């Protein structure tokens, strides 16, 4: 790519108007029937979906970016080494855990960043009661994570350049878009940064933090512009020009005051942790910005989305909820409530285990009438999606050593799982997202505005 064409691409990435061809009008027969097309966003099982080969979206460059030239970009993912001059725009440490904290808390003040980051990390070190559920402290989070980071810093203050985290993936979730015609605010979807906590000497741990940002959209045109920005990346080879184009996009959501009017001016929706490193058993937790009495809003632990309290596994309450909401569960439009039939329902934490497949009372698969609704509900929970229900081994983006790219889970790359009802279910979520992206790029605004409100959170 010439310098002139690179500049043109970077400029057009901001507006999202560089389209390879005019969008087709109406139904695209190569993607199946209209009913099948809608299921790309409402169902996970690829056996039900019109997954066609005629689709020019490059997953590895547009949607699920793990290439080493990106996640080990000398200039954007670290501070310690001398780097060759990058293609602009380029910010030192732009894709590091510590740099992202600046946008989240809306400041470059070292002391404020340290204080707010310590408060966030220490949420793991103290017990909580969330929606009536007791959430125990993770006993090793202080000694390993907090003190480990302080130990390589100086002056009793976290040095953001010494954050013990390694970037594993940058992920575009255009399939999580909402048109605003339902009960939610419109959005172009989310942008995720997947970090792996590394102990001393860059040894990879079983601890991950995922930063999940909103792609701000006021209307259909904004949603389509986000899709086009990411699609434009597919026309650029991995390397300096690609990374500059990608940073042009990521800066739009990670920079200070990237979302005026939101807490701290931050586009962050939530941070999620998924780890075995800081206590017994795999756990997933969620953290969101919450207004503080003074200073920037704090990043505090909240309930986990779409996931019941663990004690409700194999309960009549769970069976009644799924039986009562089977249609909306299959349509992907339901939201797990804080309470159901007067009982606290939504979980404060998502513990995982090899035995976890959400179901009602025993015998297995007997109390929930619609077996597809049971499976769809289970695989849309935090621990169901990251567990045996989808063939995942607790992680969707696998840990990696330096110099090696992360691999996707079986759920992402393709697997057939026999569920507890004896029904084979085939998943390939990256392919589902790829076809969804192809469909989105071909849509008119009337089609986008007619899409259902869906609640995929993973």
Number of helical regions: 16
Q: SSE order in H/E notation?
A: HHHEHHHEEHEEEHHEEEHHEEEHHHEEHH
Helix share, percent: 25-40%
Biggest β-sheet strands, sense, barrel: 8 strands, antiparallel
The rounded Rg comes to: 22 Å
- As a percent range, the share of strand residues is 15-25%
Kindly name the structural category: alpha+beta
Shape: globular
Commentary on this structure:
The protein has 458 residues and is of the alpha+beta class. Residues 1-15 and 17-29 have low confidence and may be disordered. It has helices spanning 3-15, 34-42, 59-62, 68-71, 97-105, 110-121, 141-151, 220-233, 240-254, 316-324, 326-331, 371-378, 382-385, 410-413, 429-441, 445-449; strands at residues 64-65, 128-130, 133-135, 165-173, 187-199, 203-216, 268-275, 283-290, 298-302, 339-340, 343-344, 350-351, 415-418, 424-427. Strand 5 and strand 6 (203-216) form a beta hairpin. Helix content is 31%, strand content 17%. The strands form 4 sheets. Strands 1, 4, 5, 6, 7, 8, 9 and 12 form an 8-stranded antiparallel sheet that branches. The longest helix has 15 residues, at 240-254. The chain is globular, with a radius of gyration of 22 Å. It starts with a helix and ends in a 9-residue tail after the last helix.
């Amino acid at each position: 790519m010439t310098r002139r064409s690179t500049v043109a691409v970077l400029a057009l990435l901001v507006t999202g108007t560089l389209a390879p061809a005019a969008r087709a009008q109406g139904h695209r027969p190569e993607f199946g029937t209209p009913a099948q097309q809608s299921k790309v966003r409402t169902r996970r099982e690829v056996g039900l979906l019109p997954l066609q080969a005629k689709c020019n979206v490059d997953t590895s460059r547009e949607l699920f970016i793990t290439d080493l030239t990106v996640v080990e970009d000398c200039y954007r993912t670290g501070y310690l080494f001398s780097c060759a001059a990058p293609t602009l725009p380029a910010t030192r440490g732009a894709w590091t855990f510590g740099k992202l904290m600046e946008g989240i808390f809306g400041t470059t003040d070292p002391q404020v960043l340290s204080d707010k980051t310590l408060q966030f990390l220490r949420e793991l070190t103290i017990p909580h009661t969330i929606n009536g559920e007791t959430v125990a402290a993770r006993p090793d989070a202080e000694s390993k994570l907090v003190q480990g980071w302080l130990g390589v810093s100086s002056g009793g203050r976290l040095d953001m350049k010494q954050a013990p985290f390694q970037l594993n993936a940058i992920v575009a979730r255009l399939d999580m878009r909402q048109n605003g015609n339902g009960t939610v605010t419109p959005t172009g979807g989310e942008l995720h940064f997947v970090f792996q906590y590394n102990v001393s000497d860059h040894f990879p741990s079983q601890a991950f933090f995922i930063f999940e940002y909103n792609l701000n959209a006021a209307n259909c045109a904004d949603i389509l512009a986000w899709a086009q920005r990411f699609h434009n990346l597919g026309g650029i080879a991995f390397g300096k020009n690609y990374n500059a184009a990608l940073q042009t996009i990521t800066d739009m959501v990670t920079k200070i005051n990237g979302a005026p009017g939101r807490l701290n001016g931050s586009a962050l929706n939530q941070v999620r942790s998924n780890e075995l490193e800081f206590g017994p058993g795999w756990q997933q937790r969620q953290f969101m910005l919450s207004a503080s009495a003074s200073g920037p809003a704090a990043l505090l632990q909240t309930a986990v989305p779409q996931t019941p309290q663990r004690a409700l596994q194999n309960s009549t309450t769970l069976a009644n909820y799924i039986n009562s909401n089977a249609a909306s569960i299959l349509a992907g439009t339901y939201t797990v409530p804080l309470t159901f039939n007067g009982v606290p329902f939504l979980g404060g934490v998502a513990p995982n285990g090899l035995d976890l497949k959400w179901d009602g009372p025993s015998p297995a698969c007997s109390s929930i009438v619609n077996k597809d609704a049971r499976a769809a509900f289970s695989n849309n929970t935090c621990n169901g999606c990251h567990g045996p229900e989808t063939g995942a081994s607790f992680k969707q983006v696998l840990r990696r050593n330096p110099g090696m790219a992360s691999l996707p889970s079986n759920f992402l790359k393709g697997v057939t799982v026999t569920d507890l009802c004896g029904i084979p279910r085939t998943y390939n979520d990256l392919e589902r997202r790829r076809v969804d992206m192809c469909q989105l790029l071909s849509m008119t605004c009337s089609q986008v505005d007619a899409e259902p409100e869906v609640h995929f959170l993973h």
